[in-house]
Amino acid sequence: MHRSRLFMSESKRKLEEISFYSDALQEDVTLLVYLPSNYSTLYKYSLLIAQDGKDYVMYGRTPRLIDDLMNESEIDRTIFVGIPYKSVEDRRDKYHPEGNQVDAYIRFLAHELVPFLDKTYPTYQMGKSRVLIGDSLAATVSLLTAIAYPHTFGKVIMHSPFVNDAVLQTVNSFASPSLLDLYHVIGTEETDVKTTQDGILNFIEPNRLLHEQMKQRGYSVFYEEFNGNHTWKYWQKDVKRSLQYMLK
Q1: What are phi and psi of 88, to 5 degrees?
Q2: What is the sign, positive or negative, of the torsion defined by CA atoms of 154, 183, 35, 50?
Q3: CATH number for the domain including 57?
Q4: In a 10 Å sphere around its CB, with 0-12 CB exposed, 13-18 middle and 19+ buried, how is residue 193 labelled?
Q5: Of 63, 84, 119, 144, which residue is most buried, by most CB within 10 angstroms?
Q6: Would you give the DSSP letter of residue 45?
Q7: What mean pLDDT value characterizes the chain?
């Protein structure tokens, strides 16, 4: 069962806020669904599913970018689905590789959210037409979800993912890297990132190790290091290119 209401974004485009009950998580999950301005049920659409969903609306301006890029025929027809987090603690529980709800959250994405979206909207219903996107821990759980369900989620956009030994081990042990297309950026100044529970961490070195491991294992991945730190000031500048690259 779900409830929905409409509210206006800063650009006067409509987002639908849907309250979705998850059996896997045993709680209501908020979805922010954006249908592009020229949306029509006569066509099929790709899905862009964002962890840190409100941030990708407010800071990433993703719905506006989708409209602009679609109007310029630079990306495929795309529906945006953002999943906001409830609190810093909730975010860690669901997104961190060792979070106590991460497995349930991944099951929710694959077994509950995707069937709901495919039933509600005219989607392609193919793995490569579903793109997961996230920043920091949200990027990490997006990657882990695609590895767990590569036939469901075929593409991942990662802005400065959190990487630890558990992530590296998961990436290294995945048997079918060719099923995934990945987009991965990290800032050269991400050497002392403040985290909620893990203290101050160097993000760039583990990300470089992650990329080297992906290359060795044969993943299809776009990788770049930008001049900047672990903030939306730099991720926002990259969202447009990431959409052009992964939704073309």
Answers
A1: -60, -40
A2: positive
A3: 3.40.50.1820
A4: buried
A5: 63
A6: B
A7: 95
Helix (H) or strand (E) holding 245: helix 232-246
Enclosing H/E stretch for 223: strand 220-226
Rounded CA-CA distance 8/22 in Å is 25
Domains of the chain: total: 1
Q: What is the pLDDT of residues 35-80, one digit of tens each?
A: 999 999 999 999 999 999 999 999 999 999 999 999 999 999 999 9
pLDDT tens, 231-245? 999 999 999 999 999
- Cα 49 to Cα 52, 124, 176: the distances in Å are 10, 14, 22
Question: What is the identity of the amino acid at 66?
Answer: I
The reported pTM is 0.94
Separation CA 63–CA 78 (nearest Å): 10
Which residue from 55, 234, 78 is spatially nearest to 138, judged by alpha carbons? 55
Give the range of the structural domain holding residue 158, as residue numbers without chain letter: 2-246
Length of the chain: 248
DSSP element (H, E) containing 165:
helix 165-173
Q: What is the pLDDT of residues 6-41, one digit of tens each?
A: 444 444 458 999 999 999 999 999 999 999 999 999
